[in-house]
Amino acid sequence: MDYNSNRKKMVMPEYGRNIQNMVDYVVSIEDRDERNRGARSIIDVMGNLNPFLRDVPDFKHKLWDHLAIMSDFKLDIDYPYDPPSPTILTSKPNKIPYSTGNIKYKHYGRVLDMMIKKTADYPEGPEKESLIQMIADHMKKCYLTWNKESVDDEKVMGDFHELSKGKIDVPEDFQLKDMKDLLYKPKKKQHSGKRTQGHKNDYRKN
């Protein structure tokens, strides 16, 4: 029996064994013009196997790159695009830049810190007051995720003032939402089985 485990390992198995065999055959063709015709035929078949990718930018370019990779970069033809270098399979991807700025109060998070700084630049008015209320309530909720037993509103507002670099002065009569209002999740309404059955009976009578 000819098992797949005994066959040549495919570089791109998503195209299947038959496509790989076609690529290997075209590589072995001596006439360059015939190799070019064979390569174009393989590209057409590869495109038909993945019609949903035709809307992807540079779809044809990707197919020709895949053809070069599947031939182990041995297919000598007139590529319509510059073929990729063999190092593309061994080179490491670029390191993703990551912001390493320090966060003084990590339980509030970086996004909330940025929101406070943006709010500090808002002109005075109802919109800024609404933002302060929303952010302060969210800070209290974040605080409760780390300390579910209690939370000091004065502590939260002090942190708010500090994170704003003193640019936001919270009024003395400012009040945060109660703990139960911040953590309460309304339950979904469920229809009773008897009521549903009653509707079915009414439907049958009609």
Write a structural description:
The protein has helices at 17-28, 32-49, 59-70, 110-120, 126-146, 153-163, 179-183, 193-205. The protein has 206 residues and is mainly α. The chain has two domains: 4-89; 110-183, no CATH class. It starts with 16 loop residues before the first helix and ends with a helix.
Q: What's this model, at a glance?
A:
By secondary structure, the protein is mainly alpha-helical. Helices cover 50% and strands 0% of the residues.
Biggest pleated-sheet summary: none
Provide mean pLDDT, rounded.
80
- Radius of gyration (CA) equals 32 Å
The number of helical segments is 8
Q: Give the topology string: H per helix, E per strand.
A: HHHHHHHH
Low-confidence stretches: 196-203
Q: What share of residues is helical?
A: 40-55%
Structural class: mainly alpha
**Shape verdict:** elongated
What is the total number of structural domains? 2
The fraction of residues assigned to DSSP E strands is under 5%
Number of strands: 0
- Multimer state: single chain
Cα end-to-end separation = 67 Å
